[in-house]
Amino acid sequence: MLQIYHLKKKYVNSKRYAINDLTLELKEGEIFGFLGQNGAGKSTTIKCITGIHPYDEGQIIVCGYDMKKDPIHAKKNIGYVPDNHSVYEKLTGREYVNYIADLYEVPLAEREERLNKYLKMFKISFAIDRQIKGYSHGMKQKICIIAALIHNPKLWVLDEPMVGLDPQSMFDIIDEMKAHTASGNTVFFSSHNIDLVSKLCDRVAIIHDGELCALVDLHEEGKREALESIFRNYTMAENQA
After folding, report:
1. How far apart are CA 165 and CA 128, in angstroms?
2. Confidence band (pLDDT; 50, 70, 90) for 241?
3. Predicted structure pTM score
4. In what order do the strands lie in the sheet with 2-9?
5. What percent of the chain has pLDDT above 90?
6. For residue 115, what are the domain limits?
7. Would you say residue 117 lies in a domain?
8. How far apart are CA 213 and CA 20, in angstroms?
9. 3 state DSSP class of 77
10. 25: closest CA among 74, 63, 77?
């Protein structure tokens, strides 16, 4: 579903790699957690995966398509929810979702069916024909999630998707993540909420200072309960230095 091989990314004028030799492989049908402190390289990795940032070395393959060699087909298999709900706020919710659906060439009948499903799920039917600039934080986040799912992507990438959401909306997103993977798709879930990651994910990668520190299979006995300790073991090293 997603293969990352020896990924390296350095920003201009930086002396160190933001991502240094990262290798990961995500399986079909799994919710994959991505943990790290602020500045560890989580968002940079996600922006490379989604084709927003170029990278210096390595390879990213999405559903068999190389992000550098065939970015269009690679991106068509990705649904991305950013951490800042970046949208065209002068559009209505419906106009924005239709714009994204057009980019992914989603047939009209399919987009209408999915849109109605998610509007009902997230309870924002009343606002779909209003300009997004008048939406609350949570409503903007919901419209981003709907737009990310409108083409039924094989790989759903979420960067801190729960920030600012009410508990019921969080439960709705969690249910959709489970349903998405139950259909054979994959979810890449970046979060600071270790407790949620430990309960929800199948496997977790811990990144520190741009490098992969641990890959934890949460189906192994005791690993869900130990995830916070495993994470702290790697972050404490920096605090003690």
Report:
1. 18
2. very low
3. 0.90
4. 19-26, 2-9, 57-62, 65-66
5. 77
6. 86-152
7. yes
8. 11
9. coil
10. 63
What is the pLDDT confidence band of residue 96, given thresholds at 50, 70 and 90? very high
49 contacts 31 by C-beta, under 8 angstroms: no
Residue type, 40: A
Residue 224 lies in a domain: no
- The per-residue pLDDT for range 124-181, each reduced to its tens digit, is 999 999 999 999 888 898 999 999 999 999 999 999 888 777 888 888 889 999 999 9
Q: Which residues pair with 189 in a beta bridge?
A: 33, 158
User: Residue 39: what are its φ and ψ, rounded to 5°?
Assistant: 85, 5
Cα separation, 215 vs 193, whole angstroms: 17
Measured in degrees and rounded to the nearest 5, phi and psi for residue 157 equal: -110, 120
Query: Cα separation of 192 and 31, whole Å?
Result: 15
Please give the C-alpha separations between residue 200 and each of 98, 119, 145, in angstroms, as whole numbers.
Answer: 31, 24, 18
Strands (E), the chain: 2-9, 19-26, 31-35, 57-62, 65-66, 78-81, 155-159, 186-190, 203-208, 211-217
In a domain, 104, yes or no: yes
In-domain check, residue 107: yes
Name the domain count of the chain: 1
Q: Return d(Cα 79, Cα 211) in angstroms, integer.
A: 25
Q: Retrieve residue 83's tokens.
A: 């951490």
